[in-house]
UniProtKB/TrEMBL annotation:
CDD domains cross-referenced by the UniProt entry: MoeA (cd00887)
Keywords from the named record: Magnesium, Metal-binding, Molybdenum, Molybdenum cofactor biosynthesis, Transferase
Enzyme Commission number(s) from the entry: 2.10.1.1
Catalytic activity: adenylyl-molybdopterin + molybdate = Mo-molybdopterin + AMP + H(+)
Pathway participation: Cofactor biosynthesis; molybdopterin biosynthesis
Listed name of the protein: Molybdopterin molybdenumtransferase
Domain MoaB/Mog: 177-314
Superkingdom, taxonomy of origin: Bacteria
Amino acid sequence: MADSGRLHTPQQALASLSNGLAPLSWEWVALETAGDRVLAQTLHARHDTPPFDNSAMDGYALRAEDSGRVLSVSQRIMAGQQAAPLERGTCARIFTGAPMPEGADSVIMQEEVEVRDEGVFIPAGLKVGNSVRLQGREITTDEVLVNQGTRLNSAALGFLAGQGFDRVPVYRKPRVALLFTGDELRLPGEALAPGQIYNGNRFMLMDLLPRFGAELSLVEQVPDTLEDMTQALARASRQADVIVTTGGVSVGDADYVRRALESLGELDLWRLSIRPGKPLALGHINQCRFVGLAGNPVSSFVGAWLFLRPLLGGLQGCDEMKALPAVTARAAFSTETAGRDHYMRVTLQWEGDSYRADAFEDQDSSVLRSCVAANALAVIKSHSRVAPGDSVSCLLLVS
């Protein structure tokens, strides 16, 4: 059981999450569905790219030694066509991407020549290799194409397609069960009785977790009883790799999540020395990971970025997701912290030669509006004072 008498640091929480963490199994998927998936094997080039010498311009292919003369046009070469060997003392009309004819060693763009009745005048001084893309310029056969652990972006997909890959091996998406507690919660569209509120966390996390690579296997509202929560956790642990809850991990009489978890599995860590998100709970039920986020919407938002993102990244074998990228910015706000680190929601803008960090005025953990325009979290250490113009470290919110 976790030591409930002290607060833990974010670093200790991340260490707990990474303990025994390994990528899930992998599968082959069609290239058109592989966007943002993480490559499970290093792939090597199947052929040279480009596969043949080709023209980088619309123009004329020739021997550089023939520049400074009027040359007759002996052939016309379009992209996708096979070129004949270049006759001596001639040039070939050629278009971008078309293969260079044997014997030609340079291309001059069409805007630089003078077309005459007797042929094309080529200005003197043309160099060998001008406007020619040589075979293998980008990559050669058997060279590493994309490394294992790479999260496939649009450029990587195009790069792989250019090598003829129609399927790629990727790690399986982590299955996440998303459980919400709180009898006061209702769905948008339902009528609210006195004391009830709409469940904003549900829609926020249902959008955010797939951005981190998760597949939502279960989304459920759980009644506020120990029996219902215990049954829900047991059911979720049989069909998910990760269980995420919001609410129910604090110290209130109706906060049953922690007790239900401890009856089924282990609580590894509870309560952090951060603001917002102090009541975070980490644990496991057999092989299923558990992350209990605080019910306040900003706490759930910040906790998802700080802890769910690296957990889901680790399950997908993606090193780049282990930590949010950090930049230094100039504060356009003032604040003072007490005994916990504060993760302030800020908007970064490039101004002059550095970033400026603007903070939403109300940083309370119940004010989700502070997150709407935020693109970073300014990390303000405990027992610190920040004045406008001071340097602050900011974590970029990039999925």
